[in-house]
Amino acid sequence: MQGLRAVFVAALVLTLATVPALAGPGGSNVLGTVITADKAHVGEGAAGIGTTVFAGDKLSTDPLGSMQLRAGAARLLLLSASAAEVNDTEGTPSAKLLLGTATFSTGNAHAFTLYASKAAIRAQSDAPTIGQVTYLNAKELLVTSKRGPLTITVDGQTELIADGTTYHVYLDPQDPQGAGSGSKSSGSGGGSPLKAGRSRFLIFAVAVTGVATYFAVSEALESPARPY
């Protein structure tokens, strides 16, 4: 009897000892899996196909590198010389862009949020959506809708990024380029800048990309409505 009890205790201790291996730094849960990687990193280690990513992990790519992550019903693509920290926001995968350019794909408006500085960018509907964000600095972003409309929210104020358009986003603007005094936006978008929430941010149309925009990523990212 004593021998059986000793075996049971030893097995229990071994089981408990292996549980932390299922979690990442700080006990975080699995967030997703790397599905393509070239000159890319998860934390300090090299990323490869099948690498498990945990909430709180930092993803980064070298110049000429790239990495694509599957996270639930969403995909995240980091382009070259980019970095992002992935997380779980109230049960939903998210990422905060720290450097460079990230593209996300989803067929569910609530499946993923991409943060950049103070802004939160999401799909506007449950239709297949592809959005791209470039981090210029803490107060300037480029936001592009490559398929389907996006929303950008700052301090509770939201604006729509129409399908096939690119906007230059100014956060905490101090009347950039005369904005707020009737200045025109640049590029083919034309028209006055869109104001949001007492100038918490301003957005200027800088391009209309149209339906023919070329998006060089895998077929899976091009088809976000596919089951994962």
SSE blueprint:
Blueprint: H1 2-18, E1 30-42, E2 45-46, E3 52-54, E4 58-71, E5 74-78, E6 83-89, E7 92-106, E8 113-116, E9 119-123, E10 129-137, E11 140-147, E12 150-154, E13 157-161, E14 165-171, E15 194-196, E16 201-208, H2 219-222
Parallel strand pairs: 7-8
Antiparallel strand pairs: 1-2, 1-3, 1-4, 4-5, 4-6, 5-7, 6-7, 7-10, 8-9, 9-12, 10-11, 11-14, 12-13, 14-16, 15-16
Characterization of this structure:
It is built from 2 helices and 16 strands. It has 228 residues and is mainly beta. It has a 16-stranded mixed sheet that branches. Mean pLDDT is 77; it is low at 4-27, 178-192 and 210-228.
Produce a short descriptive summary.
With 228 residues, the chain is mostly beta strands. Helices cover 9% and strands 50% of the residues.
Give descriptors for this structure:
disordered C terminus; 16-stranded mixed sheet; Jelly Rolls; 16 strands; 228 residues; mainly beta; 9% helix
Q: Characterize the biggest β-sheet.
A: 16 strands, mixed
Radius of gyration: 21 Å
User: What would you say the CATH architecture of the domain at 70-222 is?
Assistant: Sandwich
CATH class of the domain at 70-222: Mainly Beta
Helix content: under 10%
Shape: globular
**Helical stretch count?**
2
CATH topology of the domain at 70-222: Jelly Rolls
